[in-house]
TrEMBL record:
Belongs to the class-I pyridoxal-phosphate-dependent aminotransferase family. InterPro entries: Ala_Aminotransferase, Aminotransferase_I/II_large, PyrdxlP-dep_Trfase, PyrdxlP-dep_Trfase_major, PyrdxlP-dep_Trfase_small. This is alanine transaminase. Keywords: Aminotransferase, Pyridoxal phosphate, Transferase. It comes from Massilia agrisoli.
């Protein structure tokens, strides 16, 4: 019979966070092995629970969650998001500028579907959260990766952005705080990117899902608060700051230069209507989350669990010969570098699979985040301190053996 093939739109799409190594881990678990999973920022499985008041409000309102809501979302949670934009100093946002979604992920795809024609280009960071690259490709566009500079604390290289803008470029994606590096961008860098967007009439898509997961007293600046003459699409949600990944409650805010974007906004409205609505139970969580006690501050502040685990993971990893890592200022991840002389890795996906086979530790290779060389990997520092110490010890043991096997011991 004629083979049934996947769409060629998927040829350039990958999502290695749930890729071959995770499939291998699943098979190993079925064989009875216990795997330490450092590949996904899935907070609940590591004992990070959502705030009680969110859970209680969802339960109380479940009787009203059976019907479709407005295609953009319920009024009360959208009003709460509008108030949040005011707290972030984003001007001119109305209820109609806010779209609720099944997590920010759905809205990322919607934003790209509504914007791109075949051959249009979008500047995406390298490394990036790979859904951005995938969403551009699936929408018929070409992702063009600009470099974030590890030597400068993983700051975006604005000159590299400038060099890569063409007549086909439609938008710039900025992930701040950044996944996978944990970098947090200062106002000066954000203003430089906005000026670039202004000069070339580009849309700025700002992924700010970790805007409260900040360490060492750092503060987050929303890009859309810095200008009103550029079109901004800002994405956020409850998954990370409120430990509610499975609730799939996210939002997208259109702000800035909206006067010349009516046709695009009409397209977003059409796409929102086509998916009918975001899930209603998750919508019920938004108002309570944004208006309630911000328990994330207890986790990232002095003595907080996330802060302690970040510091522990950073120390244990950088104590390994040939491993360096820019200390994250935000988010839940580290993106350490392996000295290519000490660790001559040709295929970092194979490297991740070997680590999994030998030490039962699952990480994601750096090229899975569209990084340019096989010399990085990402891990989450969500396991409790004992498990995190065990995992880093296993990584250290594996790397010691790797150096010896390749004559670098």
């Amino acid at each position: 019979m004629r083979p049934i093939l996947k769409s060629n739109k998927l040829d350039d799409v990958c999502y290695e966070i749930r890729g071959p190594a995770m499939e291998k881990a699943r098979q190993m678990e079925e064989e009875g092995h216990k795997i330490i999973k450092l590949n996904i920022g899935n907070l609940a499985v590591f004992g990070f629970d959502p705030p009680d008041e969110i859970v209680h409000d969802m339960i109380r309102n479940m009787h009203g969650a059976a019907g479709y809501t407005d295609s953009k979302g319920m009024f009360a949670p959208r009003k709460a998001v509008m108030h949040y934009t005011q707290e972030k100093n984003i001007a001119g946002v109305t209820i109609e500028d806010i779209y609720l979604g099944n997590g920010a992920s759905e809205l990322i795809v919607m934003a790209m579907n509504g914007l791109l024609n075949n051959g249009d280009e979008v500047l995406v960071p390298a490394p990036d959260y790979p859904l951005w690259t995938a969403a551009v490709s699936l929408s018929g566009g070409n992702p063009v990766h600009y470099v974030c500079d590890e030597q400068a604390g993983w700051m975006p290289d604005v000159e590299d952005m400038r060099r890569k803008i063409t007549s086909n470029t439609k938008a710039i994606v900025v992930i701040n705080p950044n996944n996978p590096t944990g970098a947090l961008y200062p106002k000066e860098v954000l203003l430089d990117i906005i000026e670039l967007a202004r000069q070339h009439q580009l849309i700025v898509l700002a992924d700010e899902i970790y805007d409260k997961t900040l360490y060492d007293g750092e503060e987050h600046i929303s890009m859309a608060s810095l200008a009103d003459d550029v079109l901004f699409i800002t994405l956020n949600g409850l998954s990370k700051n409120y430990r509610s990944c499975g609730y799939r409650a996210g939002w997208m805010v259109v702000s800035g230069e909206k006067r010349h974007a009516k046709d695009y906004i009409d397209g977003l409205n059409m796409l929102a209507s086509m998916r009918l609505c975001a899930n209603a139970p998750g919508q019920f969580a938004i108002q309570t989350a944004l208006g309630g006690y911000q328990s994330i501050n207890d986790l990232v502040g002095p003595g907080g669990r996330l802060l302690k685990q970040r510091d522990l993971a950073h120390k244990l990893l950088t104590d390994i010969p040939g491993v360096t890592c820019v200390k994250p200022k935000a988010a839940l991840y580290m993106f350490p570098r392996l000295d290519p002389v000490m660790y001559p890795i040709a295929d970092d996906q194979q490297f991740a699979c070997e680590l999994l086979s030998e030490e039962k530790v699952l990480i994601v290779q750096g090229t899975g985040f569209n990084w340019i060389a096989p010399d990085h990997f990402r891990l989450v520092f969500l396991p409790n301190s004992d498990d995190l110490g065990d995992a880093c010890g296993r990584i250290a043991r594996f790397l010691d053996g790797y150096r010896r096997r390749h004559g670098r011991g």
